[in-house]
Amino acid sequence: MPQTRHVERHFTAGETVRDIVIGMSDGLTVPFALAAGLTGAIDSAGIIVTAGLAEIAAGSIAMGLGGYFAGKSDAEHYAKEREREKREVKEIPEEEMREVAQVFHSYGLSKEESEPIVEALSKHPQKWVDFMMRFELGLEKPDPKRAFVSAFTIAASYIAGGLIPLAPYIVSLYAKRVPVATALLLSVAVTLIALLVFGFIN
Q: In 92-145, which residue ranges form alpha helices assigned H by DSSP?
């Protein structure tokens, strides 16, 4: 009887989703707070829209830079820890073999069961270091493009989020029949809806 090939589908875009969440959540709230605050002080949709766009531009740059430096920091931390593991595997192999055995023991393998695996792994230094990075330190090799992708994703999400609460004011600017006070109420409504939808999706 023919068998259907098993295909595993795993979600692997966790870091991208995290960046979107960071960018969108700040983008929805900060420009809204600025626009709402200005609405109480002035009655000019043009000034509010200009200030809002300026804040979105500044905020997206700041958030994007934060994502970039966080990505660079992760890559540098991984490289530093990998160099340390390489040195330890070379200089104190007995201690590192003991640590490998402890990892296997934590998975329920006995000393007799883990010894041949530890011995075999010790004959492949690169794989040995890979093993220590993942199972001892819990570190995965970061994508070299991660910093740039993170910066772009966070910045773009911030812009997308920021335009939502600002949209009613833009409408008010070009549709003279919509007063600024009404734009504020519409901004509150669309921002709350966006936050609810965003929270539900996540």
A: 93-106, 111-122, 125-131
Q: For the chain, how long is the longest CA-to-CA vector?
A: 82
178, 172 in Cβ contact below 8 A? yes
Q: Where are the alpha helices (DSSP H) in the chain?
A: 14-39, 45-91, 93-106, 111-122, 125-131, 146-174, 180-201
Return the half-sphere exposure (C-beta side, CA atoms, 13 A cut-off) of residue 19. 26
Give the pTM.
0.75
Give the separation between CA 56 and CA 148, rounded to whole angstroms.
19
Q: What is the C-alpha separation between 130 and 141, in angstroms, rounded?
A: 9
Q: Distance from CA of residue 101 to its chain's centroid?
A: 34
Q: What is the dihedral of CA 52, 54, 60, 66, to 10 degrees?
A: -120
Nearest to 40 by CA among 146, 184, 136: 184
Query: For the chain, how far is it from start to end, CA to CA, in angstroms?
Result: 42
Enter the tokens of residue 145: 């493009």
Q: Which residue has the tokens 């740059």?
A: 61
State the Cα–Cα distance between residues 190 and 164, nearest whole angstrom: 7
Quote the distance between the C-alpha of residue 17 and its chain's center. Answer: 6
pLDDT in tens, 164-198: 999 999 998 887 777 888 889 999 999 999 888 87
Residue 152: what residue type?
Answer: F
pLDDT over threshold 60, residue 2: no
